[in-house]
Design brief:
The protein is mostly helical and 310 residues long. The protein is 76% helix and 0% strand.
């Protein structure tokens, strides 16, 4: 089975019987990514001023989750050729041959339309438009264009993962604000050090697949330097909610402590460049970066719920 993009008209048909199971369709949704999207969108909904019926909030959150899943399915449809080459992704349903490319495409398109249309009905057109743009940005701007053309793919493409709290905010208010933009920026500047730490470890995979990730194009030393630069921007930005007044003392303390740990690990990645400790340092930063973002958003969510008496 070929996944070359010059053969897409053939690849989107159902010329072979499907062997896909329910779990394969679940895999297309990228559940781990979806969980982060749902969590950050929930924070946007809870922090936003205004009243929203719990049922409508739940439906809106479900739509945002489905939109994230649609993005994942369309990404796996488009990236099946490089997924087949990379160790980390070759077991996915399409490159593994369990699912036809056309099934992934149809599934992703259906979920895209369903999530955007339902969010429009449950919330407002602004939130629906933001969700539609998020799907478009991830699939077309990042997957189809940036990922294969520039080492800055993660920097610019990271915006797709940063939109969910803005969508959540818009669900309640029908607008964006300095608060939702700040949450967007935290995730935006978090994405490069988070992903490049993984890319340092998986650089051979990306090179084999011909994906111009920063370690492949500029080398590991430049990647380490960029990780440190973005970390130095991220950590003070992480304190912004406290100084802007929508993050309290608990959030401020959490952001300060977690930010200090993030910088320590980023500096270690920058300094440790040889031997078995080099990939270990990158893995530790990658793992901690997930905890960092979770703790910051959890602190905001906890403070908001406490203030509301929940």
């Amino acid at each position: 089975m070929s996944f070359a993009h010059d053969q897409l008209p053939l690849a989107t048909g159902f010329e072979e019987p499907s062997r896909a199971e329910v779990r394969d369709f679940v895999t297309l949704l990228k559940p781990r990514v979806m969980s982060l999207v749902v969590f950050t969108a929930l924070v946007g909904i809870v922090l936003a001023p205004g009243d929203l019926h719990p049922a409508l909030a739940a439906i809106s959150l479900f739509c945002i989750a489905i939109g994230a899943g649609a993005s994942g399915a369309l990404n796996m449809w488009w990236d099946a050729d490089i997924d087949a080459v990379m160790t980390r992704t070759r077991g996915r349903p399409v490159p593994a041959g369990r699912m036809q490319p056309g099934e992934a495409l149809a599934f992703g398109l259906f979920l895209s339309g369903f999530s955007v249309g339902t969010l429009y009905l449950a919330a407002n057109w602004q939130a629906a438009a933001l969700l539609a743009f998020t799907i478009f940005f991830y699939v077309v701007i990042y997957s189809m264009w940036l990922k294969r053309s520039t080492a800055q793919n993660i920097v610019i493409g990271g915006a797709a993962g940063a939109f969910p709290p803005m969508v959540g905010w818009a669900v309640v208010t029908g607008s964006v604000s300095i608060e939702s933009i700040t949450l967007f920026l935290i995730i935006f500047f978090w994405t490069p050090p988070h992903f490049w730490a993984l890319a340092l470890v998986k650089s051979d995979d990306y090179a084999k697949a011909g994906v111009p990730m920063l370690p492949v194009v500029a080398g590991p030393d430049e990647t380490r330097r960029q990780i440190l630069i973005y970390s130095l921007i991220l950590v003070p930005l992480g304190l912004a909610p406290f100084f802007l007044g929508f993050g309290g003392l608990v959030y401020g303390a959490a952001a300060l402590l977690m930010g200090a740990m993030f910088l320590i690990l980023a500096v270690r990645v920058f300094r440790v460049r040889e031997g078995k400790d080099a990939p270990k340092a990158a893995k530790e930063l990658f793992a901690f970066s997930i905890l960092y973002l979770f703790v910051l958003f959890a602190a905001l969510l906890g403070e908001a719920l406490f203030a509301a008496g929940v």
